[in-house]
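User: Fold this; tokens only.

Assistant: Input:
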Amino acid sequence: MKKLILSMLAAMCMLGFSACGSSADAGSSAQTEAVQHSSQEQPNNEVAGSEGSDKEKAAPDQNAVQPKNNDAEEKTGTDTIVVYFSATGTTKGVAERIADVTGAEIFELIPAEPYSDADLDWNDKNSRTTIEMNDPDVRPAIANDTVDLDGCTTVYIGYPIWWGDAPRIMSTFVEAHSFDGKTVIPFCTSGGSPIGSSGDNLASQAGSGNWLAGGRLDAGISDNEIQDWINNMD
């Protein structure tokens, strides 16, 4: 009887040890799997954290002072303008280079009655330009005189030299505008004739403004030469 009881107790103990071993093995396996799973997710978490940091660095600081873009203000806020008349395109080319060098606005005066090649024939005593230049009181009409000089402090005025003087259309222009408080710089183009007294004549007709001597500029003048001309102007 005792042997039977001891055998039963021994069997029960063995079953208990087996169950404990299985439980321990299961617990150990679960712990191992948990560690492995955590280890596999960790790099992804670090990458996500890194991306978040980069996004924060890339995001603009709303309180930071942003750099100011002055391009638009420089183009629209200039106080210099180049106004010119060009019958053949030579004065136009020089006027455009002056505008490029100085950053000035530019405005071309268009005659109400355009000049034809026959009108420009200085060898014809009956040509339109010959008749106009022989009469100091002639004032050819301007088709587009809408230029506003109110915000300008420097005005370049360009024209070809006709018969030693500025075309009469320039007289039409200067007499129609006020140059008070403005520096006016006449310039001309020609086959070789100097600016002469053309600038002084326009200044007298304008009756206002600080008129400088200006000068004659070659058709092929460079930007550097224009800058030197401006720097050495009296």
